Amino acid sequence: MQRRTLLRAGLTALAGPTALATATQALAQPQPLIEVWKDPNCGCCQDWMTHLKANGFAVKAHDVGNTAARRRLGLPDRYGSCHTATVGGYVVEGHVPAADIQRLLRERPKALGLSVPRMPIGSPGMDGPEYGGRQDPYDVLLVGRDGNATIYASYHR
């Protein structure tokens, strides 16, 4: 038997047809593709991409740096960080948590995208053991097409 057939049979036996339909839908939905422009030697960028993959994103990396991409996409430098990404027609700059990107894609606000300026310790990708559990407060900004921003989410632990 094929793996998918076994999975369906197991789910049906354990949870019934409603759970099977939900599980089948989840398997059929493609992962959102996020393209990332970054420095090829940046470890925190790699850690952020690992965070995205663990949270349901497909990731395509461009190891060419991100300054040109940020400018091409129209994101003001004041919102800059070490990597720039695009997903679903939006720009994502810096260490934005996957949950906030998922919310952006659900809500679809009229905006350029999201930014976590600089590189706050404790944000996804900046949260490894080398930081000793430190958690700096930071905000995720919703950046409008006019260059102005509002707070989209706050992480003040």
Q: Briefly, what is this?
A:
With 157 residues, this protein is α/β, with parallel strands linked by helices.
Distance between the termini: 49 Å
What's the average pLDDT? 87
The side-by-side strand order for the widest beta sheet comes to: 2-1-3-4-5-6-7
CATH architecture of the largest domain: 3-Layer(aba) Sandwich
Number of strands: 7
Task: Name the overall outline.
Answer: globular
Question: How would the blueprint of this fold be written?
Answer:
Elements: H1 3-15, H2 17-28, E1 33-38, H3 43-54, E2 58-62, H4 67-72, E3 83-87, E4 90-94, H5 98-107, E5 113-116, E6 138-143, E7 149-155
Parallel strand pairs: 1-2, 4-5
Antiparallel strand pairs: 1-3, 3-4, 5-6, 6-7
What does this molecule look like?
The structure is a single chain. Residues 1-24 have low confidence and may be disordered. With 157 residues, this protein is of the alpha/beta class. It has five helices and seven strands, in the order H-H-E-H-E-H-E-E-H-E-E-E. It has helices at residues 3-15, 17-28, 43-54, 67-72, 98-107; strands spanning 33-38, 58-62, 83-87, 90-94, 113-116, 138-143, 149-155. It has two domains: 1-30, no CATH class; 31-155, Glutaredoxin (3-Layer(aba) Sandwich). It is globular, with a radius of gyration of 18 Å.
Which keywords apply here?
157 residues, Glutaredoxin, seven-stranded mixed beta sheet, alpha/beta, single chain, 34% helix, 5 helices
